[in-house]
Amino acid sequence: MVLEFFWRNDFFNLLHEARTRKLFYLTRVFSEALFLRKSNQAPLSKEGTRLWRAGLCFSASQIKPPFQRGCPPLAGGGLWGFAFKCGAKRRRRALYARFDRRCRNPENPPFTAALKIPGLSSAIDIRLSFIAMQKTFIDLPPFGAACGEVRLPGSKSISNRVLLLAALAEGETQVRDLLVSDDTERMLDALRALGVELRADADDPTAWNVHGCGGAFPVKEADLFLGNAGTAFRPLTAALAFCGGHYRLSGVARMHERPIGDLVDALCAIGAEIGYSGAAGYPPLEIKPGRFTANNADGVLCARVRGDVSSQFLTGLLLALPLSGMPACVEVEGELISKPYIGITLATMARFGVRVEHENWSRFLIPAGSRYRSPGTIHVEGDASSASYFLALGAIGGGPVRVQGVGRDSIQGDVAFAAALEKMGARIEMGENWIEARGPENCAGNCAEPASGSLSGLRGITLDGNEIPDAAMTLATTALFASGTTRLTNIGSWRVKETDRIAAMAKELRKLGAAVEEGADFIAVTPPAALSSPPEGIDTYDDHRIAMCFSLAARGTALRINDPGCVAKTFPDYFAQMRAVAVSVPVIAIDGPSASGKGTVAALAAKALGWHYLDSGLLYRLAALAAHRAGTSLDDEAALAQIAANLDVCFEEGAVFLEGALVGEELRGEEIGAKASRIAALPAVRAALVFRQRALRRAPGLVADGRDMGCTIFPDAALKVFLTASAEIRAGRRTKQLIEKGIQAKIEDILLDLRQRDERDSQRDVAPLRQNADARFLDTSRRSIAEAVEQVLEWWGNAEQQDQSI
Fold first, then answer.
1. Radius of gyration of the chain (CA)
2. Cα separations (Å) of 735 from 604, 746, 751?
3. Catalytic one among 183, 414, 470, 542?
4. What are the average pLDDT values for consecutive 10-residue runs of the chain, which has 806 residues?
5. Most buried of 86, 140, 545, 612 (most Cβ within 10 A)?
6. 779: part of which helix (H) or strand (E)?
7. 3-class DSSP state for residue 786?
8. Sign of CA dihedral 455, 502, 493, 165
9. Is 470 a catalytic residue?
10. Is the dihedral of CA 462, 480, 485, 40 positive or negative?
């Protein structure tokens, strides 16, 4: 059997199918092994590790290929491709799966690990081979301004609350504007497994009809896999404790690292029976029928829970206690964090007919006989946390950027992010269902310039982020464009989210050059004079909010975001929406055959426009020179790619520096030119230099000359030109150049060489010589260089006018 799939959802769906094929243990161990740790944690030891999950022992004797410098072990890499090979006496069966998530190096060789499954026949010998696949990333071009309008997806917090209460309510609920994401899919999957009748609208993926079950799920025994969805795991834990069934709840490894002990303790103290299948205080959980009785003198079922770890614990209790049918209360021990999220819970419960009173957010009262009733139709607000990224874009990119779907009447506390931006100097306007952000008045003339520090006109602030923990993350990257230091305090809850967000944000901000101070519950960010563009990219730790927060850094530099698919948790099309409002730094890409004059035309066009100029051939020569100095064989593609990826080059006013030293005639020598031609044909080298070239895209614009400039490096180039001339004309030009340099040359030999080179270049597998379908054709056989430059500038002027008219 051969199965191929590419996204995490597919893997989770496979788990269910695998049960019926007796492959559950195999797929389950991969679920656990691949999600076991995050890259900010300690790597697995060379001697090996044992992962005990679902009664299965996984032993790995070799985790990291010894020759691969800088390649992280499995623990730091996220999802890897793998193949199971199951050998029995009479047959062999293979289950292949490919993941296109984070892998550091596609050249890694496979390594094997033994699997032992207790209770299975010793006749079965199972071996596991890991095969590293290409990691995924997205390269964001730098943008010089941001303006436009975005309609927000539904709120994750509201969506999963609404789904759960609609399932528990009496009657049928029509849910509209539901968030389409990983987290809501996990909740929908769980409700289906619990017997809830769900009907999707065939024409609208955000519309669902939910037939409520009147307070108790029909299915009394189920295994529920909830991924990393805290908004599904915590409330379902509480609700299922009151449903009189036997349920097993699990998630990805990070979910098993997120504490749930305070919620479980609170439920068990009032009669629930919940056990831990792994480490005490953490998922996975096993829930059995409990016995709930009033536990105080007033005949009230009273629960107590800590309020300083996660507001989802209190949310879970509040949503579940009406299922008891008794008068109930929840007393909060300590300070309650993230009060606005509790406000969302109370408002949603009220829509379903249960009104909860509270005493200064420390004691919550639920009346006797409370039960959920369908409101008929309910609309989910746009996600205020997601609004923060676009409002920040408006603030640092000039704006205006308007978000539709959330406004001054929102029940979500994260709308307070707009006030924080205003405190930093942004201009904010609000309507009933929209918010709009612009940059400060004093940055109006600088919107097209690279922003960093005080250039944006924003100023650093100190803010207590307790009530807007998710949106406060956006302030940490907005701080890159503010003068002074931005200090976010009271954010200890960041450490128990999808990853340790304080540690992760600090590490990635430092990659960009920021000075960062971090503590148990705070982070302080001071911007650099100019942002760095790390070639290894920004790691996202399978955390959607980290990916979206760091996209803002593209205001100052081209940026690679690793594992961008993690945004599917709450905002699947985030990067497409971002591109719609961020105005990228323009690029003119010029390609053509050798000796066509494309380099000269590109350089002169850049000078005329006042833009930067990229000679891609120069980068390959620099890589060849670095390899030459290092004594690296031209047959060692992996080593050459590593050199190219870590190339330390700098271009300053026509001068070229390699590893800090000025490079002169050595770069133009025939030996280096020949080596550059050879390594340019290696796929791994070209792939390694892709981002290095994209990182040279800077405001106000770039003219790029090279073979794959328009199709691979800058596919979004505003103008693409294929510049050519007849072979005879090109041979004459090349002969003249050589003679002027004092080099003897015969036009016949050069003509033959050019024709042979054109043939080779047009037939090569990597970056073949051909005109892009969207490129303008410019034949310079009968044009001078000046006329060719004039034509390019005319085309650019027309393209710019057309873009402005749109």
1. 30
2. 22, 7, 9
3. 470
4. 28 36 33 33 33 29 28 29 33 29 31 35 32 66 95 94 97 96 94 96 94 95 93 96 96 92 95 95 96 86 91 95 95 90 95 95 94 96 96 96 94 94 97 95 53 71 94 97 97 91 97 96 96 92 95 94 92 94 95 86 94 89 92 92 86 78 78 85 88 91 89 92 90 82 81 81 70 89 92 91 59
5. 545
6. strand 776-779
7. helix
8. positive
9. yes
10. positive
The alpha carbon of 780 is separated from its chain's Cα centroid by a whole number of angstroms, namely 44
Assigned token pair, 478? 């907005």
Among residues 625, 583, 553, 595, the alpha carbon closest in space to that of 780 is found at: 595
Beta bridge partners of 522: 489
Render 391-434 in DSSP notation, one character per residue: HHHHHHHEEEEEEES--TT-S-GGGGHHHHHHHHT-EEEE-SSE
- Name beta bridge partners: 222: 247
- For tokens 């930067």, what's the residue? 612
Rounded Cα gap, residues 714 and 696, in angstroms: 11
The torsion angles phi and psi of 446, rounded to 5 degrees, stand at -110, 10
| Residue among 366, 443, 368 at smallest CA distance from 144 | 443
Do residues 422 and 457 make contact, with C-beta atoms less than 8 angstroms apart? no
Euclidean distance between CA atoms 649 and 517, whole angstroms: 30
Q: Are 97 and 82 in contact (CB under 8 A)?
A: yes
The partner residues of 588 in beta bridges, in order of sequence, read: 703, 719
What pLDDT does 78 receive?
30
Cα separation, 77 vs 539, whole angstroms? 10
What tokens does 748 get? 């016949």
- In the sheet that holds 649-652, the strands lie side by side as 649-652, 655-658, 661-662
Say if residue 700 is preceded by a cis peptide, omega within 30 of 0: yes
Distances in Å between the alpha carbon of 411 and those of 169, 351, 384, 433, 702? 21, 12, 9, 11, 45
Q: How far apart are CA 322 and CA 95, in angstroms?
A: 46
Strands (E) across 663-763 are located at 702-705, 719-724
Beta bridge partners of 320: none
Coil vs helix vs strand at 436? strand
Query: In terms of pTM, does the model score above 0.85?
Result: no
Three-state SS at 500: coil
How far is residue 721's CA from residue 774's CA, in Å, rounded to a whole number?
A: 9
- The whole-angstrom distance between residue 234's C-alpha and the CA centroid of its chain comes to 24
The strands making up 92-97's β-sheet, listed across from edge to edge, are 50-53, 56-59, 111-116, 125-131, 81-87, 92-97
233: helix, strand or coil: helix
Identity of residue 597: G
Long-range contacts, stretch 22-26, CB < 8 angstroms, 24+ apart: 23/95, 25/54, 25/55, 25/56, 25/117, 25/120, 26/84, 26/86, 26/95, 26/115, 26/126
What single letter denotes the amino acid at residue 766?
Answer: V
Amino acid identity, position 589? A
Q: Are 591 and 707 in contact (CB under 8 A)?
A: yes
DSSP string over 131-166: E--PPPEEEEPPEEEEEEEEEPPBPHHHHHHHHHHH
